[in-house]
Design brief:
By secondary structure, the protein is α+β, with helices and mostly antiparallel strands. The protein has 22 helices and 21 strands. The protein is elongated and about 140 Å long.
Length: 582
């Protein structure tokens, strides 16, 4: 190979890489140019043609939709007095992921929240997968403002509402309570939750990079507040009943008790109280044994307080009247394997005296003249064995078995209040039927402006005679002398029954009962008093329950301006003092 050819080959080898390297540089340059053009085109598109995109992306990072809590409707009494109101409170919340990045703030935040630092640390670190966690619910706005003023990253406040009950335990069982989210859980709060509860709204806010709200942008949806609920309750009468019952339970060392007061003309519940009571403002007292409404949910055997209705069933047949004679001697009566006894041998007495002296033998003899269906029909029509229609959550229907299953001994014991069970509200409604002249009206826990017509279940003449007979129960010769109300005629009936226990009855535990209407000449109010297990020595309904009736009715009649119908029995000195207190 010649020297010339060797040089040519060397130059050829050197020239090939140069040509390849130039092509690659050209390709890379072309790609970079295309990318630059694409980026430029995208920038022009976003900033000139589709300007809203960047605005939307920016908004998505700083704008948030926040719930606006709705104010729950008030519960008020029939005269407009507040029974339940919602007060504004603030809840402190945090974004755990942001707050966890500033552990140096835990100590002062925990102090402001009145919480332990370790609790706060656990609360934050155990929720790092979440953007929202409550720290403290329902703080006073002033205290929450101090927390917010700390300016701690990831911590903010939320406006909410908390339920407050001005009358406390006086209305606790009736009203019930709401949960921490202001949703009804018991009582009227639960029964009318949809009516009272509002609909939350939504607002849009601007937040900084730390999650703090810096500006309200717009209200997307206004919150709809709940509607107010006007109840049938007269808070003045409620206080009277609460005070009288509490005193009676304490004085008689009783297990508990209930009082129900009804407006006879409308069926409205003017008062409903129980003992022991609970304060709905104190969540530590939210125990079923404390907040259960005994007046609607508990049932008991009524004892002799059922006798007027059995006598009424007999009078409906036309075979009995107030002066119809009944032989009760020698004070005992054998029915099957059961011996019915009276406290004393009353001999031959009329029906009026059967009620006045509460004769078991007399009422059993009357009951056994009735066909089971006749007696059952009257008791059923009076409301026993079915709910009153009040709408109160958990209301019991009591127990009234079908007459097809009755035997003579069962019908006999039922005549003086054993073998059936009633609630205090049921029994109060039955007495209201007598006061209304035989018309049954539905029980209402809401104010009634136009009295309902009701349903006639007993002849008016029969009921009027029965109510007149029941006046003798409250006379000096009757079993309920202590139920008397000065200036008013009172018709009622006592009841004392053993409590059921272990398949039988405990002869040392009693239910003391009194039910009645007033004034007898034109009944306006019906009331039922139950005292459970009095154990201070007295246990008869006339000694324990009747005085409560007298105290409550004395005050209620005065407050409601119901005129007296028995002034001739009021001492002259009392009348003079009433006319001229000076």
């Amino acid at each position: 190979m010649t020297r010339g050819s060797s040089l040519r080959d060397h130059h050829a080898r050197d020239a090939a890489p140069t040509e390849v390297g130039g092509w690659r540089l050209w390709l890379v340059g072309a790609l970079l140019t295309l990318c630059g053009v694409a980026l430029l085109a995208r920038a022009i598109y976003l900033q000139v043609i589709d300007q809203d995109f960047l605005a939307r992306q920016g908004d998505a990072r700083i704008l948030r939709d926040v719930k606006l809590s709705a104010n729950r409707g008030m519960i008020i009494d029939r005269n407009g007095e507040p029974l339940a109101v919602s007060t504004p409170v603030d809840t402190v919340w945090a974004d755990p992921r942001k707050l966890a990045q500033h552990p140096q703030d835990f100590a002062r935040l925990a102090k402001a929240l009145d919480r332990d630092k370790n609790w706060l640390a656990r609360r934050v670190t155990s929720n790092l997968d979440r953007e929202f966690v409550y720290l403290v619910r329902h703080m006073r706005p002033a205290d929450a403002a101090k927390v917010k003023a700390l300016g701690i990253t990831g911590v903010d406040t939320l406006r909410e509402y908390r339920r407050y009950y001005p009358a406390g335990e006086v209305t606790g069982h009736l009203l019930g309570f709401t949960n921490v989210d202001d949703v009804g859980q018991e009582g009227l709060e639960l029964a009318f939750d949809q009516w009272l509860g509002g609909e939350p709204g939504i607002k849009r806010v601007m937040r900084d990079r730390e999650g703090r709200t810096i500006e309200d942008i717009e209200r997307i949806k206004a919150p709809r507040p709940g509607q107010d609920l006007r109840t049938s309750i007269d808070l003045r009468v409620q206080y009277l009943a609460y005070r009288a019952l509490k005193q009676a339970v304490q004085e008689n060392a009783a297990h508990g008790g209930s009082v129900v007061v009804l407006d006879i003309q409308t069926g409205e519940v003017l008062a409903m109280v129980n003992q022991p009571a609970f304060n709905p403002n104190d969540r530590e007292q939210y125990l079923p044994s404390r907040y259960r409404n005994r007046a609607t949910n508990d049932f008991f055997e009524p004892g002799s307080s059922i006798k007027p209705f059995v006598v009424g069933a007999a009078m409906k047949t036309g075979r009995f009247h107030s002066d119809t004679l009944i032989e009760t001697g020698p004070g005992t009566l054998r029915v099957g394997i059961k011996t019915v006894k009276d406290k004393h041998n009353l001999g031959t007495i009329d029906v009026r005296t059967v009620l006045e002296k509460s004769s078991n033998v007399g009422v059993v003899k009357i009951a056994l003249t009735l066909k089971p269906q006749e007696m059952w029909s009257t008791l059923h029509d009076l409301g026993f064995g079915s709910v009153t229609g009040s709408g109160f959550p958990g209301e019991s229907a009591g127990i009234l078995t079908g007459y097809e299953h009755w035997r003579s001994i069962g019908q006999a014991t039922m005549a003086y209040g054993y073998g059936l069970s009633v609630t205090p509200l049921q029994l109060a409604q039955a007495y209201a039927v007598l006061g209304a002249g035989g018309i049954r009206r539905p029980v209402s826990l809401r104010r009634v402006d136009v009295p309902p017509a009701g349903e006639r279940i007993m002849d008016e003449a029969v009921v009027r005679e029965l109510v007149q007979m029941m006046e003798s129960v409250v006379s000096e010769a009757g079993t309920a002398r202590r139920a008397a109300v000065m200036g008013y005629r009172v018709s009622g009936k006592t009841g004392t029954s053993w409590k059921a226990a272990d398949g039988g009855y405990n002869s040392t535990k009693y239910m003391a009962v009194f039910g009645g209407v007033v004034p007898s000449s034109n009944p306006r109010l019906a009331a039922l008093v139950v005292v459970d297990e009095p154990s201070a020595g007295k246990f008869y309904g006339g000694d324990v329950a009747a005085p409560v009736f007298s105290e409550v009715m004395s005050g209620a009649l005065r407050l409601l301006a119901i005129p007296p119908d028995d002034l001739q029995r009021v001492p002259a000195t009392t009348l003079v003092q009433a006319q001229d207190p000076w």
